[in-house]
Amino acid sequence: MSASNSTNKVVQIELKICGITRTADLHLAERVGASFFGTIVEIPRSPRSVSVQRAAMLGRAAKIRQVCVVETEAPAAISDIVATCRPAAVQLHTSADASGIAAIRSELAREVELWLAVGLPPRDAAGQIPVAEALHRISEAAEAGVARIVLDTATPAGTGGTGKVSDWQAAAAIVEQSPLPIMLAGGINPENVAEAIGTVRPQGIDVSSGVEGAPGVKDPEAVNELAAEFRKALAILRKE
Known about the structure:
This protein has a single domain (about 15-240), classed as TIM Barrel (Alpha-Beta Barrel), CATH 3.20.20. An eight-stranded parallel barrel has the order 1-2-4-5-6-7-8-9, surrounded by six helices. By secondary structure, it is an alpha/beta fold. About 40% of the residues lie in helices and about 20% in strands. Helix 3 (about 75-85) runs parallel beside helix 4. The chain is globular and about 45 Å long.
């Protein structure tokens, strides 16, 4: 069944604040009404990476749902992270094929969702975004047991996490046709979150660097401003 918003009125868009490294920022995310917080677990290239133990500590302190962001493709390693942290979901950044993703899904407890980061492809030689490429990846992910997609600006590996704004018209086309709910990520901040929601109409917004004072340290003013703009944009959609 399609997650299209063309025939189903948007009544709820969930907010995820990712890259949480401190309990103060976790509680800030809770206060502004985020549905999820993300912990980047043992990804050395990320300045927001935390150990499994710290991710678990943050999870125990949380009143909102935790998403553990991982890059490893080893099902056993992911299973160990889940056993320690007990998150609501695992967000996988990988170029693994459908069978590899399905193997990971099979290792997770039924109540733990598997999310997949999908990078929006760059423009081709004709200046077009190959939306079909992303939709094919999403369809395979759905068959492999993925519950939700995090649509981001593509990295060279094609998985996202750049902190850069993607082509939102192309993202809207993907949301329109996707068989899975879409969390929109990539360069979202207080100044553009309303435009992102109004243009793309995703099922969720995922922010990280756009509300930081320094990598891994959230700026309370930016978080509060983004949350206020988020609520305003959602209220407008509900009136349509």
